[in-house]
Amino acid sequence: MDLRESLGMAVKTLTANKLRSTLTMLGIIIGNASVIAMVGIGEGAQKFVSEEIEGLGPNVLFVVPGNQETQRATFNLPKTLVLSDAEAIAEQVPSVVGVAPEFNDSGPVVYRNRSTNSTIVGTTPGFPLVRNFTVGRGRFFTDLDMQRSTQVAVLGSELADRLFQGSEPVGQQIRVKNVSFQVIGVLDEKGSGLGGLNYDEAVLVPLLTLSRRLVGQTSPFGVELTYIVASVDRQDNMGAAEFQIANLLRLRHKITGADDFVVRSQKDLLEFTGTITGALTALLAAIAGISLLVGGIGIMNIMLVSVRERTQEIGLRKAIGASGNDILVQFMIEAVILSAAGGIIGTGIGVGGAALLGAVTPFQPGISVSAIVISVVVSGSIGLFFGVVPARQAAQLDPIVALRSA
Amino acid sequence: MTQPIIQFDHISKIYGTGNTEVRALSDVSLTVQSGEYCAIMGPSGSGKSTAMNVIGCLDRPTAGRYCLDGVDVSLLDDRALAHIRNQKIGFVFQQFHLLPQLTALENVMLPMVYAGVPYPERHDRATAALTRVGLDNRLSNKPAQLSGGQQQRVAIARAIVNQPVLLLADEPTGALDSHTTQDVMAIFAELNASGITVVMVTHEAEVARLTRRVVWFRDGEVVHDHLAPEDIGQMAFTA
Predict the structure, then answer these.
(1) What is the pLDDT of residue A372?
(2) B46 in a domain, yes or no?
(3) Beta pairing partners, A103
(4) Which of A16, A405, B139, B191 would give a disulfide with B105, using CB separation of 3.0 to 4.6 Å?
């Protein structure tokens, strides 16, 4: 008996009891839909984060205070990184073309009667170049502003919209943490950044103005920094720059033991977040996989019942010339059709669900063709695997007993 | 000289072992020639069902040699036995055993599906077989839409569609009323007249009387083997 005959027969049997077949498939449908949606969401999150990191530019190094251990252990990082470190990096590391040290604070920003809480970023004139920002209106602050600690501010585009609501911000006076600043420029929009820091909603002021007039001296070593971002001239020099920055800081901090800072490249960040989102994806997929397994067991259960119910049919088929093998194949095919059809329907629902999620969340779910092929093949295999036991039972059925049990 | 279709050579069938051993068939030798019309009778537990299963290649004998149509089938494996059942034997059962989701025509085509007959030929042969049992106007009816007698005629059509040498019927009239019994027996007589060997297990003397040979089983042995069916009624009474 050839495969096409068997397929046709199985379809006929399954469609004869549509409700039961549908309910049996439901487990696989749900399992597959959740696997596809979960993996899609996971991959989407991964893509979202990588794009954000890649948006930093390929030739950027981050220097953050504290070593791996203290970073993990404490929320408040040690205040070992200071402005003079950043200046030393800019002067002494040859491949570094620009440095943007930052100290981040937060507080109320007020224009007339409108007030909002905002991130206050203290940085240097190198910021637009290093962080790849452009100034849309007005200008960025200069070295002169730094030296004189002038009270000037550059606004993120969203903050400017919120405070000024269409009127011209440049030249206006605002109050940042109750200190008066003059708005000299507005940054072009760039979208939310990493680590929750969105420069579109921040106010940027000269670093020295921030430390002298708003926060005061907070570190015994100098002007405290949250981190330093350094841009390197060429991708090839990234390794060398990382090494030189680390050595320079070790010398400056007189380190003999463990480092009190970490130098990270975009690649490191990608790897780090890739590990996290990868683990997240795997976890989601594992949970969804369990429901797929449950669906498979559901199929086995129904197939076992079906074998019991159809003893007479099996006996008759044997009497008119079916071998045990023919019966085995017949029941296996039924199980595989159920699970594969469930897999295909579930995949459709999963793709739809993921697309829906993409519409309401910032990240686009990545549905790869391979994920779809794999899940359909896997669900088919589940049918094969869980179909074996009922099919073997059917094949070994004694036709005489079956035919006489009328 | 006629050729033997069924040749039992000291056949035994034993179920279980040791103390629980049951001898369903005990050293039975029996020959049915080609073209015979034979009834197997006997009280329940007499071994007639077991004999039927061995004849039908649904069960293997524990000991002895069984030749069907000149082929020794005692030693064949599952697949080969399935092929023999498909090609040489047509089964008719008390409960008809038609598949409810298939039409009459599809039910009759089923043995040819296992034989690997291509669809056009299958369709034509199944139609011919149904015409032969007088159901050419019921081809696309499902079993539920047919009467008991009609269902049994579909089952007979299914049994003869692969042109078997042996038609094996297990209480074929057990579920039918006396009127349809007559119809069905007429079909068996006609098939036998066309050359098919018919072996039928029955406990109805009325039915057995319509055959031309009666084999009586009791306690796993053949106790009577009559070619003259006239006094079956009395035999049934005394047995």
Answers:
(1) 81
(2) yes
(3) A122
(4) B139
pLDDT score recorded for residue A277: 81
Q: Residue A130 carries which side chain, given as an amino acid letter?
A: V
CA angle A9, A13, A15 (to 5 degrees): 115
Residue B21 lies in a domain: no
For chain A, residues with pLDDT lower than 70 are 1, 55-58, 67-78, 192-196, 404-406
Query: Cα A88 to the chain's mean position, in Å?
Result: 35
User: How many distinct helices (H) and strands (E) make up chain B?
Assistant: 8, 10
| A401 at B interface, C-beta within 8 A | no
Residue B18 lies in a domain: no
A145 alpha carbon, distance to own chain's centre: 39
Does the structure show a pLDDT above 60 at B239? Answer: no
Q: What is the mean pLDDT of chain B?
A: 88
Return the residue in A11, A316, A397 with the most chain B beta carbons within 10 A, the one to mutate for interface testing.
Answer: A316
Count of domains in chain B? 1
Helix or strand holding residue B154 (H, E): helix B148-160
- Report the DSSP beta bridge partners of residue A186: A137, A155
Residues B77 and B181: their CA atoms lie apart, in Å, by 37
**CATH number for B58:** 3.40.50.300
Q: What is the pLDDT of residue A406?
A: 47
Which range of residues forms the domain containing residue B94? 4-13+26-238
Q: Residue B78 has which token pair? A: 């599952």
Residues of B in contact with A320 (CB under 8 A): 85-86, 91, 110-111, 114, 158
State residue A75's pLDDT score.
58
Residue B48 lies in a domain: yes
